[in-house]
Design brief:
This protein has 229 residues and is an alpha/beta fold. It has six helices and nine strands. The strands form two sheets. The protein has a seven-stranded mixed beta sheet, sandwiched between helices. Strand 4 and strand 5 form a beta hairpin. The chain is globular and about 45 Å long. The termini are far apart.
Length: 229
């Protein structure tokens, strides 16, 4: 499988970089497009102390696209909550995500000053990251995202009761025709059962997309978790 492509950055606007947000795009997109889309939706996604990283997923065969190559974080049998995960694909990407986080930690950013989040498949990758691979993160956000019903994330969390987990922010449109609102809500409720604390916001009349209101909620939530120090 190809490696992560070049990273797109929004650098901290202040004198000191003390925290990082990693924002994963949805399937078929790239980091540059995600950054442009976010900037169109909100003027507030720049922070004095926080660098925002927009990685690009590797080009790899994607089953829902008939096996054609696409920039996706992992493969899926189908875009459906009831199918089984393609765990080999997920875990290969996990190794690269952990390396990306490690590079920030090696650069002086404590892991509890790093937030991961994303849109659609990028949000799902963030859920794997914060609740399976790197549970000491500052937080996780997911916009229009879901985990499969029998996800390995739930299986792992069921074996580790009582551990502290990153807070979660989930946002979902009530008119999403690709990732049903009930899939997102089911994911949130299942994670809550295993000790994840968070917020779930429904965006009226929003389809499979981000919007200004949702991005402003995310921005305020990030500032609360990663204050200037």
């Amino acid at each position: 499988m190809s490696k992560l492509s070049a990273l797109t950055f929004t650098r901290n606007t202040g004198a000191k970089h003390t925290a990082t947000v990693i924002f994963f795009h949805g399937s078929g997109a790239n980091g540059e497009h995600m950054q442009e889309w976010v900037n169109l939706m909100t003027k507030n996604f720049k922070f004095p102390q926080i660098k925002v990283i927009y990685p690009t997923a590797p080009l790899q065969p994607y089953t829902p696209a008939g096996g054609q190559p696409s920039n996706v974080w992992f493969d899926r049998a189908d875009i459906n909550q009831s199918v089984a995960e393609k765990l080999d694909s997920v875990e290969r990407m996990g190794m690269q995500v952990k390396e990306l986080i490690k590079s920030e930690v090696d650069g002086g950013i404590p892991i509890n000053r790093i937030i991961v989040g994303g849109f659609s498949m990028g949000g799902a990758l963030s859920l794997y990251t914060g609740y399976r691979w790197e549970r000491n993160l500052a937080g996780v956000f997911a916009f229009s995202s879901f985990l499969n019903n029998q996800s390995v994330v739930y299986q792992d969390l069921s074996k580790n009761s009582g551990i502290k987990l990153p807070p979660l922010l989930q946002i979902h449109g009530d008119n999403d025709d690709l990732v049903d609102l009930t899939w997102g809500r089911n994911t949130y409720n299942e994670l809550k059962k295993y000790g994840v604390n968070g917020e779930f916001h429904v965006m009226p009349k929003l389809g499979h997309s981000i919007n200004k209101r949702g991005m402003n909620i995310i921005s305020d939530w990030i500032v609360n978790l990663l204050p200037d120090v």
